[in-house]
Write a structure and sequence with these properties.
This protein is an alpha+beta fold. It is 15% helix and 35% strand. A five-stranded antiparallel β-sheet has the order 1-3-4-5-2, with helices on one face.
Length: 136
């Protein structure tokens, strides 16, 4: 009988953004800035939220993030997104960042968080998130 992988061994959600960590994104210790990782996660979440909202969205909240492991120059940062909840105008997206290690290709989770986005209209005011065809 084969063993099932633990849930935490696999990313949750859809691969939304993938890019290489570069030297310009490092701190004095040679690790990638946490803010750079957060920025990539926000972009990925914005892509997923805008697709679901069928239009413009803004980030309004980020739940607590804990950085589990550092990201190094040359690692490929893979950001996965999954819609957790949809309110009237808000969308909560679970976002995980995984590093595919340079040269050895080992994939490790580096952080995760839940981001909340609000769908907005052309005047910047909240608007309802349209239901999916399967929703109603």
């Amino acid at each position: 009988m084969s063993e099932q992988p633990q849930i935490s061994d696999q990313p949750r959600g859809e691969l939304t953004v993938r890019l290489m960590a570069m030297p310009a994104d490092t701190n004095a210790n040679g690790d990638i800035f946490g803010g750079w990782v957060l920025s990539q996660m926000d972009q990925a979440g914005g892509i997923a939220a805008a697709e679901r909202a069928q239009g413009r969205v803004v980030t309004i909240a980020v739940e607590a993030m804990t950085f589990i492991r550092p990201v190094k120059v040359g690692d490929v940062l893979c950001v996965y997104t999954a819609v957790d909840n949809i309110g009237r105008s808000s969308i909560k997206i679970h976002i995980e960042a995984w590093a595919r290690r340079f040269r050895i290709h080992l994939r490790e989770k580096v952080t995760d968080a839940t981001f909340t986005f609000v769908a907005i209209d052309e005047n910047g005011r909240p608007r309802p998130v349209p239901p999916l065809a399967a929703d109603g």
